[in-house]
Amino acid sequence: MASDGHIEVATENYHGFVAFAKWGTIAAVVVAAIVVLLIST
After folding, report:
1. DSSP classification of residue 3
2. 35 secondary structure, DSSP code
3. DSSP string of 1-41?
């Protein structure tokens, strides 16, 4: 069984990954919207 220290580190890593994925998705949507606008003009 994992010790509490490992679980805390894993939880921090998970929260960091989720935050990175959230901001990465937002950035990708913004870039995609800009590309679509540039192509459509």
Report:
1. -
2. H
3. ---HHHHHHHHHHHHHHHHHHHHHHHHHHHHHHHHHHHHH-
Question: Residue 16's closest CA among 24, 26, 6, 5?
Answer: 24
What gap in Å lies between CA 26 and CA 34, rounded to an integer? 13
Structure tokens at 11: 């939880």
In this predicted model, what pLDDT tens digit does every residue of 1-37 receive, in sequence order? 557 678 888 899 999 999 999 999 999 999 999 999 9
Residue type, 11: T
Question: For residue 41, what are its two tokens?
Answer: 């003009």
Distance CA 1, CA 31 (A): 44
Q: Is 2 left (phi over 0), alpha (psi -120 to 50) or beta?
A: beta
